[in-house]
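Researcher: Structure prediction, please.
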Amino acid sequence: MSAAVAQTHAQADAVVAPEVTLIEVAAGAMKNNNYLVVDPVTRQALLVDPAWQRDKLEAALQRAGATLSAIAITHAHFDHVHLAGELSAAHDCPVWMSQREIETSGFDLPRLLAIDETPRTLGALRIEPILAPGHTPGCLCYRIGGHLFAGDVLFIEGCGLCRDEAAAHAMFDSLERLKRELAPDTRIHPGHTYLRGPGVPFAELLRWNMYLQFPDQSSFAAYRLRRGQDPRKLVAFR
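Model: Predicted structure follows.
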């Protein structure tokens, strides 16, 4: 293999770092983190969990000089899919959701595309869907370069709600998988902000996010499903 060809292959295999923009949106008490992820080479863009304020999302796209090429959904709860259909139609782009989430939620759109964990490309970006059930049966996280878009699977200070013991066991397994597979410097971008903003390195969460400290499914589930949790704190978004 010539040096020129080898260099070309190396460049093609390199992970391109995405441009990530946090877009904070709200509808009453509901506050969500939406993310614009742009390939710096082609200016193709991905929106993660678009909701509530379309004007903010369109403005971010325009400022980035980017074309919306796909919408990535972590799970089918309304505050994460609110604008998916509208934006998909306006920009003629697919909406990605896991096959399992589609089957269990009944969510449907004209451009909905069922995906699995097969890596996808957007321009020069490599996008790795990671199945992480627990909050819902078909939750996905998306790893793009050194960033993880976690939806309601993993927050900076905690993790998503689980409806029953089986779901809590699944959540424990999902968090354990992330502990095995994520590099310590991976930046975590959750669907909601409580105290600290998005972009904290995973190494920091490993030190002080209590939901990453439990040794087994049973102890995790006992705490995640404990009685007396204040429902007001669940939506105490910043």
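Model: DSSP finds nine helices and twelve strands in the chain.
Researcher: Thanks, that helps.
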